[in-house]
Amino acid sequence: MASTKRPAESDHDDGLEKRRRELEAELATRRPARQTGTADDKPGTAAGYGQAMKLSSEFVAGILVGAALGWIIDRLAGTSPWGLIIFLLLGFGAGVLNVLRSVGVVAEPLQGHRGDKPGK
To answer: Is residue 98 part of a domain?
Structure first.
């Protein structure tokens, strides 16, 4: 028993392999050219660690600022623990939004934009 494949299976496999090669070629033409040897391409470089530290510090800072504002409001208004809970959740949302903006998933807000049309 040299080959257990039937001719129909062999044709099917050849067709799949041909389609895979065509897809790879098309993807290669659509992908932006990557520069080899840049520091950002290598995993575990200082640039990757720097980006991770930036994202984590923005997230933690949002939470800490929200918690601090909630604690201050609770002390001034005597609404403990509701101000802390509400502002902690708002700080969490702000931290997530800051991370998404840094990564580029969410667009930055426009400066000085009030909804006016240009020329008015």
So the answer is: yes
